[in-house]
Design goal:
It comes from Roseibium aggregatum. This protein is 74% helix and 0% strand. It is mainly alpha-helical. The N terminus is likely disordered.
């Protein structure tokens, strides 16, 4: 018998798999896939982030800059993660799946953009209260840009997890990992 600490080899004396080891294997498989998804999403987030920062610095309101940047990023993630992380179930059209994903993103990005804009406003109020706007402006950034991208960083972990589970739901049939 192999090392009893290994999740894939934990067995009772009668040879049956110990309760919990299959759920540990499932958890490990999901965690591994999530890590790959997070890496791909990180690249998409950089695309999103740079687009948002550029648009905000150019004068577009945080809500719209985040909205446009996010759609650039999520479209990238859909194609790359769809190919490398998720196993497309059945023969459903990529166009239909992308349309469904964009509908999900329309709702999710709108909510995230509103939350980002609200958080940005709160951070901007705090920055004004501590007289930090002149310092930020001295760095060559508009204070609203700094507050907007900071707010985006705070919202991102929640959108990452939600997008992973939605893509998994959308692209794969229920199966054990």
């Amino acid at each position: 018998m192999k090392d009893a600490g290994s999740a894939s080899t934990v067995v009772e004396r009668d040879g049956k798999q110990k309760s919990g080891s299959s759920s540990l294997n499932r958890y490990n498989a999901i965690a591994k896939r999530f890590s790959g998804f997070a890496l791909i999403s990180g690249i998409g987030w950089c695309l999103d982030f740079l687009t948002m920062a550029t648009l905000t610095q150019s004068g577009l309101p945080v809500f719209w800059a985040n909205f446009i940047g996010a759609f650039c990023g999520v479209t990238f993630v859909f194609f790359v993660a769809g190919k490398h992380i998720f196993e497309k179930a059945g023969n459903r059209s990529t166009t239909v799946l992308l349309a469904l994903y964009w509908i999900w993103q329309l709702v999710a990005v709108t909510a995230a953009s509103a939350l980002t804009a609200g958080l940005s406003w709160a951070l901007m109020s705090l920055l004004v209260t501590v007289d930090g706007t002149a310092f930020v402006a001295g760095l060559g950034l508009k204070p609203v840009t700094l507050c907007g991208v900071t707010a985006k960083m705070l919202v991102t972990p929640f959108t990452l997890v939600a997008n992973f589970f939605f893509m998994r739901f959308l692209l794969e049939h229920r199966k054990s990992d």
